[in-house]
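Schema walk-through. Below, the input block comes first and the output block second. Nothing else is stored per chain. Lengths vary across the set, and this one has 410 residues.
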Amino acid sequence: MPVYEYTALDAKGKMTSGIIDADGARAARQKLRAGGIFPVDIKETQEKETTEVKTTRFANLSQYLRRVKPAEIAIITRQLSTLITAGFPLVSAIDALVPQTKSHQLKTVLAQIKDAIVEGQSFAQALSQYPKIFTPIYVNMVRAGETSGTLEIVLERLADITEKQQDLSNRIQTALAYPLFMCLIGTVVLFVLLTYIVPSITAIFLDMGQTLPTPTRLLIFFSRFFKSFWWIIIIALIGAGVALHRAKKTEKGRYLYDKTILAMPVLGVLARKLAVARFTRTLGSLLENGVSMLIALDIVKNIAGNVLLSAAVEKAAQEVGKGQALWAALNEGQVFPQLSIQMIQVGEQSGELEGMLNKIADIFEKEVENSVMRLTSYLEPVMILVMGCIVGFIVLSICLPIFEMNQLIK
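--- output ---
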């Protein structure tokens, strides 16, 4: 059913806006008037979006900017859980969320989901029609909640999972923002020094016709190189980025990339812990909501974000299907940290596997956050030291010829 965006006057004459679903523009106007709202302007949202995609030269960019963010999904999920807990029917709860949602795309999707439910589809079936917004994990947990009659509890847990992952991501980004900013500023300052300031100073030494010290000659070489070939450096960096991006899309390239990341001394440990935390938290939530072990493993095998871990989970699912314990099956892959294996073993033996999986996620997420904070605290003095050494080399290279000139004069 088409969805329309409208601007209208309410019974008190105040301007209001929103979206409504109807068979046509005329039906939408009649539906609004029946509700005591008098439409001033009404447009079909689908037509508007199609026109934008066809006319703009940056369709992919605009589509990216309009994408629904995980934080918005977490908000509507928690609001929906609250409304259902308060006794609202599912259709009425979704209808109440539509005007409160800020994202235009999400408004349209919610309205279409409501129509699908009214037409007889389950909530999970309606959500599965939008895989770019609602992940398979989200859909399967909703399906489990509908089957068990605990949809409001499942939605609350989904909101908790999304918010925790988003909160961890935000904290890591915040911790890395200052070092990255300082690195960018330092690079720009050095580029300006080498390409504009240094050549004007060293030109004086070159006019003297004397043999210059080795540091000064090196400085002049680097200055000329950056001034003449800076564009080659930029093209090389962009080319390397594009090549890496394309390689990651191939099966072999992705495998080599993920294997390299896990093999790195510090970054590999952080990536492994973060992937395991994501895996255990999602698996624990699925098991808590009544999803069977084999189905849950099949759902979460790609959630880790690393093909080596995904392969280990897929292999473990096969072994669990044969009757092997989860901890033993995961241990065969030699990819998961031993702490997580031991805690899963304790959870299986004690019958508290779901709770233990969530504890593993909490522990590893906290360790990742603390490690990132430690690394950023080390990066700042290291960056200052590196910048100081480079600037010191530039100053020394400029001063050495001056000292030699003073000695000749004496």
